[in-house]
Protein: ABC-type quaternary amine transporter
Organism: Lacisediminihabitans profunda
Amino acid sequence: MIEFVNVSKRFPDGTVAVEDFSLVMPSRKTTVLVGSSGSGKTTLLRMINRMVDPSSGRIEIDGEDTSSLEPVALRRRIGYVMQNSGLLPHFKVIDNVATVPVLNGVPRKQAREQALTLLDTVGLDRSLADRYPSQLSGGQQQRVGVARGLAANPNILLMDEPFGAVDPIVRAELQVELIRLQRELDKTVVFVTHDIDEAFLLGDQVVILETGGRVAQVGSPTEILSDPANDFVANFIGAEKGKRALSIRKTPRGEILVDTEGRAAGVLVPGPDGSPA
Ligand SMILES: Nc1ncnc2c1ncn2[C@@H]1O[C@H](COP(=O)(O)OP(=O)(O)OP(=O)(O)O)[C@@H](O)[C@H]1O
């Protein structure tokens, strides 16, 4: 569990990126921080692994105050995946993945073997292991970025807009892949995005942020969709504009859900007690 307790961050130039932020991010769940540009998402994420230190307040990981931990050691046991993959251009794919375990003291041969297994995990063919990042597609690079983030077998995986720079089709593939991975690996994931659809798709807990890291609402996607806390949230999630309104259309083969433009959105199936799901 990651806990923020009254955390603020003021940068040396006086910018207050985060003000009095408190939140529990449960273990083995995905928490998504979503908000517009400048709302403090990246600053919040980077405070978890001490790439940025809070000006006040504290962050605990499983009850341990991170300010008492050595930053480099902390960073090595927390996976970090960023936009544009953050791969080292002059290292082959396999060495990009194996680097952190080697720094952690794993013998190189063993680290490279584990790296190959991780390529399997993220759905990449092992034949790509000897390529350089520039010889991969954007989506493949992001998968290597995820493999790299997982390489030290961290309990926590921080992901900063990891799918922001790839085209929508690849992005959808990567999102599905992350859901599969999360079921398999059971990590505590903190994911930053400005895309509310991505937040609802991936998040167990979604945190909608306003400027200064102010929490507009926290909840499951269902809770937020069914009961937006205020106009800001309603506007942000598109509920106000009826963008997410679905209605039932009866067809000879059953009932389907359609969106406001008449596009089919899904099939209505009965719930366990026979009521509509
Ligand atoms: N090193 C810094 N020095 C001064 N101000 C900073 C620094 N890093 C970030 N900020 C400011 O802090 C605020 C929050 O930035 P942050 O990068 O956390 O936002 P964000 O929500 O991740 O934005 P984006 O979606 O654009 O990445 C912004 O106003 C930003 O300009």
Summary: Residues 245-277 form one domain. The chain is about 30% helix and 25% strand. The chain has a mean pLDDT of 91. The CA atoms of residues 86 and 251 lie 49 Å apart.
